Amino acid sequence: MRDDTMTDSLKAKAQAAFKDLARDPGVPKPDPILVVDNVVRRFGGLTAVDVNHVEIQRGSITALIGPNGAGKTTFFNQLTGFDTADSGTWRFNERAMNGVPAHKVARYGMVRTFQLTKALSRLTVLENMRLGAQKQRGESFWRALVPGFWRGQEEEITERAEELLVRFKLDAKRDDFAGSLSGGQRKLLEMARALMVQPELVMLDEPMAGVNPALTQSLLGHVKDLREQGMTVLFVEHDMDMVRDISDWVIVMAQGAVIAEGPPSTIMSDERVIDAYLGAHHDAPLSEGELEAQLHEAEAELEAEIEEETQK
Amino acid sequence: MRRAVIAFTAFLGGLIFLLAGPAHAGPADCQGLRGTLKLQGQPVNGAKIAVTTESGQPVKEVTSNAQGAWDVQVDQIGKYRVTLDVSTLPQNSEVRGGNNVRTPTVYEGNCSTVLFALQPKAAAGQPPADTGQTTFWEQAAQLTFEGLNLGLIIALAALGLSLIYGTTGLTNFAHGELITLGAVIAYTFNVGFGIQLIPAAILAVIVSGGLGYAQDRLFWGQLRKRGTGVIAMMIISIGVAILLRNLIQFFFGAQNENFSDYNTQAGIVVGPISAAPKNFWAMGIELAVLIVVGLALMKTRTGKAARAVSDNPALAASSGINVDRVIRIIWTFGAAIAALAGIMLGVSQSLKFTMGQDILLLIFAGVTLGGLGTAFGALVGSLVVGVFIQVSTLWIPPELKSVGALAVLIIVLLFRPQGILGRRERIG
Amino acid sequence: MDWLTILTTTVHAAIGWETVVYGLAAIGVNIHFGYTGLLNFGQSAFMAVAGYGMAVTVVFLNLPFWIGILVGLAAAAVLALLMGIPTLKLRADYLAIVTIAAAEIIRLIFRSVYFKDIFGGSDGRRGFNGDFYAMNPYPAGHYGIGPFGFDERTMWFLTVGWAVVLLSCVVVYLLMKSPWGRVLKAIREDEDAVRALGKNVFSYKLQSLTLGGIIGCFGGFLYGLYNGAVQPDVFGTEMTFFAYTIVILGGAARVFGPVVGAMIFWVLFVFVGNTLAELVANGYIPFMTTIQVGPIRYALVGLGFILLLVLRPQGIFGDKREIAIDAR
């Protein structure tokens, strides 16, 4: 295990930051790493995302929850440059990020993973890892032709990759094709690969989806670890147990908007959340209007995905 | 099962016809040069043609007959010089490009067709201002008419391509060969067996439908079952195109041919438009078929099922639609109407083993312009492409008319990949 | 039956000019399709602009051979940008249609009567390879053993041709071992993942298209130099399709795959063609004429291509494991 006192202090520090905050959507944080204002995304007549204001505290683990079709993934896509917002601004480390293409977003230190894992199947696990490293000299065409230019750096990268693989218990698989890994191992690989970028903010889109329960604990541990190493984590999740277990702060989205914020221990008892989220899900039967609204949301989410596909 | 047997029999039957056909049609005792002189679709009688060897030894001089045809048989294979005596042409005409000498090669046991494309004298390049015979607007009307004719043919082919794409996701590069195949089968019935063109065409459409069914049942359906991806299938379809095209060339030869009926019809004039009656008939038939297919898509159970499958195959399957059956029906009808398109193309122009390949990209242009996978979009897109191609010859040389259409195809794909009618959400 | 001719032409085909020209086209396609996953169906266009760039510069503008090569290279690079910048953001099937259409546009322009003064219409251009053969260091004579061998002109051509092929293979080998090649292969697998890791996917795709196009363009030069002519209809979609067949035959994403593929392809193509022609000429296949041999062997290429893709998509020497994982 790691240094326990250090772990406790970082966790305590992260949670202390949230101590006296109001439970309102868009509440200002003491030291925000990401500040979002008026982000809107429409598909045809449907508004998938309409976020007025939200801030993400530096060095914390923030969960983003909400019913299906609430626009969480679409919101992720906006922030990371995978989809273009109709309007709005957001600042990462005081740097305006709207309109910045996806690869630059990652270079500035804001790295995401995907709901459907994107392991690069016909590359080995180690090659997957190496790809994540930034500023590689050998990635420029002319220098790639002369191995002398990049050999040294490649060795450093490999060393770092191997350390991470050991941490994520993938070192035995280093020379296997990523396509041969199990679903959970792919999630681990994707997270480890994202760490190769050395990000400040890690954005995880449903890190637990489709993961074998045996691996869940280890994945949870790795997410907590990120905070201990000074990174900020923002993740989308459906599993409330996991949210309660690891997050310091929870943001709730419904119908594209942020409707509530609060600490994980109390957020689920918030009226607005029960109404919008749990109410819609657990309190049967639904009225026709609610049903329709939900359908629209689901459709919006789907269309967002389609949109993402067509951008290719 | 019974259906499969019928289709397979039809498939075999078609192949046998194809094999047998050229034995009748193929001029085994023909070795020499021949051609047909036509001016705006009308035969040119009495034009003098001189054939010499490559070194200039005279071989024979002939005159074109009432059908505009001429024929010179030679004993030696090799290169020949064919000179058309321009002074014997009708007064108002000239050879397109100005060159009245051709140097074709005669191969063993084969007749080479020598082409002299004739055109009215003043029509080259600019619209004639001096003769005053046709004004710009008359020409534009004539070209629009020809464009609609071409557009309807493209639309027939595009409908099948678009439906197959919609239901299976396959971008079928072998669709052009379905067109050629239809035309060649009709030719086999018509010229090989001496059946009048209309029954021959009906037979050919039926046989082609059967071949389409068989193609899906025996090939594409099997690939889908194996889980072959759409991109892999698209690449495979290029192989299918090459295979079919060359098989057709193997049996049919590389020359241009015409059906034996409706070749020499006197043109009729309707307002500013002059065309052979067959063109009006062809357009009528094409339009009728398009309307019937459109209604079938809208009204019949199968048509609705087909549209449901296009929209969302998984959802359609879970709501009890037999997706495979729908796809097979689509293939059958797609191939049948592609065959009809080929026959119509053969009637209005001539038959060649590359006729489908040559028109394929224009079909893609029509389909993408209307929106991939939308049947009605394909129709509108095709008409626009057809008219655009013909009318553009008012300003650009006719040989470059396809360039314009292809440029439009590229521009559409770049800026509005969902087409002019497609909704953005539909793609993907 | 003239078995000796069949044997010698077949052996010659293994290292002959077709193998060189199509091998280069296939090396380019391998970079596009095998490594980057780009479906460029317009490879023939790169070869056409190269061949014509050289021919027109020498014949029409009366400039030296080397300038012709530079013009051809520049033309291929410009074509890569023109074709790539607008299309590389499109879906795979759209890219295929756009590139095939672009190649067709270029062919139609080259063969048009309208531009006949420049490009020579459907007869194309000839008479531009004098400077190339003037550099020939081989004295006149026959080089080889017994019936196998080449004259001095072919020797010179093959020396240069194979040097270019090997050089291209070395470049591909170096690049694909490097982090640059790693990015390309990653794009083939999933370009969004690559984007999320901070790589400029578009720029890499454009580099890949340009590199593959430039290597293909050497195929265009060598085609023109060997045949002494460039004609528009040579550079049709069939040429691109042959290159794809060769890549898949030899195994996609392998450095020597296209070279081995080209050798096998042309050996088979020449052997089958000549054997059929001999059989027909000697009356063993009574229902065929010599003229029908051409289409039948093209048809066999089509059939072989289909069977290869359906039954053995990893190619003859491909790594089964690599394909099996991502079974589509």
From TrEMBL, chain A:
Return the InterPro entries for the record. Answer: AAA+_ATPase, ABC_AA/LPS_Transport, ABC_transporter-like_ATP-bd, ABC_transporter-like_CS, BCA_ABC_TP_C, P-loop_NTPase
Using the record's annotation, list all stretches that form the ABC transporter domain: 34-280
- This protein is called Branched-chain amino acid transport system ATP-binding protein
Which keywords label this protein?
ATP-binding, Nucleotide-binding, Transport
Q: Which Gene3D superfamilies match?
A: P-loop containing nucleotide triphosphate hydrolases
Give the molecular function GO annotations: ATP binding; ATP hydrolysis activity
Query: Does the record bear Transmembrane helix in its keywords?
Result: no
Against Pfam families, the record matches this protein to:
ABC_tran (PF00005), BCA_ABC_TP_C (PF12399)
CDD domains in the cross-refs: ABC_Mj1267_LivG_branched
GO cellular component labels: plasma membrane
UniProtKB/TrEMBL annotation, chain B:
What organism is listed for this UniProt entry? Nonomuraea jiangxiensis
- Bilayer disposition of the protein: Multi-pass membrane protein
UniProt keywords (A-Z) are: Amino-acid transport, Cell inner membrane, Cell membrane, Membrane, Signal, Transmembrane, Transmembrane helix, Transport
What family classification does the UniProt entry report for this protein?
Belongs to the binding-protein-dependent transport system permease family. LivHM subfamily.
Q: Which Pfam families match?
A: BPD_transp_2 (PF02653)
Q: Specify the signal sequence span.
A: 1-25
Q: Where in the cell is it found?
A: Cell membrane
Q: Tell me one GO molecular function of this protein.
A: L-isoleucine transmembrane transporter activity
Where does the source fall among the domains of life? Bacteria
Question: Which residue ranges does UniProt annotate as crossing the membrane?
Answer: 148-166, 178-207, 227-248, 280-298, 329-347, 359-389, 395-415
GO terms for cellular component: plasma membrane
- Example of a GO biological process term: D-alanine transmembrane transport
* Name of the protein described by the UniProt record: Branched-chain amino acid transport system permease protein
From TrEMBL, chain C:
Q: Which InterPro entries match?
A: ABC_transp_permease, LivM-like
- Residue stretches spanning the membrane: 20-38, 45-61, 67-85, 92-110, 155-176, 209-229, 241-257, 264-285, 291-311
**Protein topology in the membrane:** Multi-pass membrane protein
Could you tell me where this protein is found in the cell?
Answer: Cell membrane
Q: Give a Gene Ontology cellular component term annotated to this protein.
A: plasma membrane
Example of a GO MF term? branched-chain amino acid transmembrane transporter activity
Q: In terms of domain of life, where is this protein from? A: Bacteria
Q: Which UniProt keywords apply?
A: Cell membrane, Membrane, Transmembrane, Transmembrane helix
What is the protein name for this chain? Branched-chain amino acid transport system permease protein
To which species is this protein native? Nonomuraea jiangxiensis
Taxonomic lineage per UniProt? Bacteria, Bacillati, Actinomycetota, Actinomycetes, Streptosporangiales
